[in-house]
Amino acid sequence: HRILVLHGPNLNLLGTREPGIYGATTLADIDARLQALAQQHGASLASFQSNHEGALVDRIQAAAGEGVDFIVINPAAYTHTSVAVRDALAAVAVPFIEVHLSNVHKREAFRHRSYFSDLAVGVIAGLGADGYEAAVRYALSH
Ligand code: DQA
């Protein structure tokens, strides 16, 4: 397996960003945990975070040529706005799971709409960092 984990804008601030909503775990902690999990299963896992929509599009386009067979993505605020990131995932046709740390459905109405959910294999929201781990476990076993 070759898994790509993508993190959208402001997720580089995890640990200090609204910890009541997003938890105290840093992005480096999450990525290290996922890396260890993949290694245990003999899989390769790469992580990428960007605050820039186009950089996420470029990374998704590159994934196709790298033989990535599963993407785990938290599009963060782009969840609710980005046709471009959605189109990139549709273009490369790599199966993906959409992850949110918080339960977006019990938050503001503008967070209830996702440009990704109808294309995703599945959606995980509200389980904090454990949600990423569940997504990677699924990718490893499928
Ligand atoms: C988020 C939820 C989004 O609404 C928000 O814009 C984020 C993070 C989450 O992980 O809960 O930045 O995707």
From TrEMBL:
Keywords: Amino-acid biosynthesis, Aromatic amino acid biosynthesis, Lyase. It holds the Pfam family DHquinase_II. SUPFAM superfamilies: Type II 3-dehydroquinate dehydratase. Gene3D superfamilies: Dehydroquinase, class II. The record marks 17 as: Transition state stabilizer. It comes from the Bacteria. It catalyses: 3-dehydroquinate = 3-dehydroshikimate + H2O. The keyword 4Fe-4S does not apply. Substrate binds at residues 74, 80, 87, 101-102, 111. This is 3-dehydroquinate dehydratase.
